[in-house]
Write a structure and sequence with these properties.
The protein is α/β, with parallel strands linked by helices and 196 residues long. Helices cover 42% and strands 22% of the residues. α3 runs parallel beside α4. Belongs to the cytidine and deoxycytidylate deaminase family.
């Protein structure tokens, strides 16, 4: 099926602060071609990571095979259950540099951190610097995904307890990650002066 089962979506995209047992990454995507003021939808669907290959790399291989017209502009939107790991962020940043006519927006349900807690934030910063627009999913994004990618049997999306609070918490965390390092140092200095 081109649509994701409801339970699969709700389990994997739930924006829990500690999402134990959720080892797979799911990626819902929309590819559009921009023609002046209008856009034309070319494809949509979802992918999940496969043995030995992260879902972000799978998508990049998929879209690279399209042989995109360099004279046209394309916009890709992802909704992912986890933010990209450091290596995937590097692959995506390199891909974006190779395709200046392509824009990428990534909405993430949760932030992924491996054992080296400094690597993934650095990867997200590099990805952002390469031009990717990255944000945490909000209720509006979940609603859109529910109506676009989920076999919902015409049921209305109902958020879970803590959805909004967790989105706000994760958005603040992401905002701190994306702050230029000199601003982070300025904040640390300000907190020291205040005795905090």
């Amino acid at each position: 099926s081109i649509l994701m089962h409801r339970r699969l979506f709700l389990y994997n995209f739930r924006n829990l602060r500690k999402a134990k047992g959720r080892r797979e990454t799911y990626l819902c995507y929309v590819v559009k071609r921009r023609d002046s003021a209008t856009s034309c939808s070319l494809d949509f669907g979802y992918l999940r990571n496969q043995m030995g290959c992260h879902v972000e790399v799978l998508f990049l291989r998929y879209i690279a095979a399209w042989d995109l017209d360099p004279g046209r502009c394309y916009r890709i939107t992802w909704f992912t259950s986890w933010s990209p790991c450091y290596d995937c962020a590097q692959h995506i940043a390199n891909f974006l540099r190779s395709y200046p006519n392509l824009t990428l927006r990534i909405f993430m349900a949760r932030l992924y951190f491996c054992e080296d807690r400094k690597a993934e934030p650095e990867g997200l910063r590099r990805l952002h610097k390469a031009g990717a627009q990255i944000a945490i999913m909000t209720f509006k994004d979940y609603f859109y995904c529910w109506n676009t990618f989920v076999e919902n049997r015409e049921q209305t999306f109902k958020g879970w307890e803590g959805l909004h609070e967790n989105s706000v918490h994760l958005a603040r965390k992401l905002r701190r990650i994306l702050l230029p390092l000199y601003e982070v140092d300025d904040l640390r200095d300000a907190f020291k002066i205040l005795g905090l």
